[in-house]
Amino acid sequence: MKTIFIIHAGADEHRVPHLLEQHGARGYTQIGHGIGAGSTGRLEGTRAWPGHATLWLTITSDDQAQVLLAALRGFKARLEPGEHLHASVMATEEFI
Fold first, then answer.
1. Residue 7 · residue 55 · CB < 8 Å
2. Is 67 within a domain?
3. What pTM did the predictor assign?
4. DSSP states along 34-95
5. Gyration radius of the chain's alpha carbons
6. pLDDT digits (tens, 9 = 90+) for 84-94
7. pLDDT in tens, 52-65
């Protein structure tokens, strides 16, 4: 099993859950208004660093994780200028 952690900063935060549902993710958790800094700059929801990111977590089978990652790569390739998407995959030993 895999846990996929997704960070998206963009105009339409509904596109990621739609992508998850469209590609078989049985469930996910969404966490809104994330702030922080990274390779694409700072997002702090202030006048100096406007914006925020939305975060999602989903737990899937190993095979389903590969399907979702391919879809996320395609999504990232079509982002508008100024939008950002990052995803990481972690092994999940047990899910209750």
1. yes
2. yes
3. 0.85
4. E-EEETTEEE-SSSSS---EEEEEEEE-HHHHHHHHHHHHHHHHTPPTT-EEEEEEEE-S--
5. 14
6. 999 999 999 99
7. 889 999 999 999 99
pLDDT exceeds 70 at position 38: yes
CATH number for 14: 3.30.70.120
Continuous segment of H or E residues that includes residue 29: strand 29-34
How many whole angstroms separate alpha carbon 59 and alpha carbon 77? Answer: 23
Tokens of 71: 């879809």
- For the record, the structure tokens of 94 come out as 């047990």
Beta bridge partners of 86: 7
Residue 22 lies in a domain: yes
Residue pair 74/11 in contact by the 8 Å Cβ criterion: no
Rounded Cα distance between 53 and 94, Å, is 28
